[in-house]
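Hi all, a correction to my earlier message: I attached the wrong file for VCBS repeat-containing protein. Here's the right sequence:
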Amino acid sequence: YIKRAYPCPTDFNGDGKMDLICGSADGKLYYFEGTGMKSNYELDVATMFTDMDGNQISVGAYSSPTTADIDNDGVDEIITGDENGSIHCFKRSDGMVLDDQGIILETGLTDAMPSIGDLNGDGVLDMAVGSRNGEMRIYYGDMGEYSVLFNAYETVDTGQSWCSPCIADADGDGVNELYAGTFEGYIAKFENNVFNGYIEGNESNYKGNNNLKFGANSVPRFYDIDGDGNKDLVVG
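and the right structure:
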């Protein structure tokens, strides 16, 4: 249960195809370039991000990448948690080279897992951070002089033993919702930051319920993979 793939779908190279940045228990960041939809969506073999000195990027253990433009320069940064609760920021430099911006937030949580999006509708990015013990915090963003600042937070009672949050407009109504992957492999839904059941499918799983189940320690992300205008569900 300590191993896991932590996917972050994004068009990293700007070619209009989904690429995948993936975190891992080893703390590194893996990049898979998307080659397009055939019978399944196809990705190239993994390559590693490096720092300005040519060293492979690593945050120690349990990298958990997400992307967001927190400094409003029009280019997404890569934001990732680590096993000690730190949230790191990396800016794109050239190709697979990232410029380490250091730690932007210390949460004190075990295996911090961030997701970034406007959750309260004020036009400023917020950050949801989950953890191994199930605690989740919502850090409401304030626009600073150069970037979004994440200070005050609200604790969400998830009722889960493991929690990987995802802020996304999955239903296409123009308003972001809050979801979270769980230890049991389910995808939890939250309404007004209160647990509101799980995403269900039309078939029963081996546990005898209709909850979509993806092994254990699920990591959900919503992204329009096939370009049909509808969000698809990507789960590590």
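Sorry for the mix-up. The chain has one domain: 6-235.
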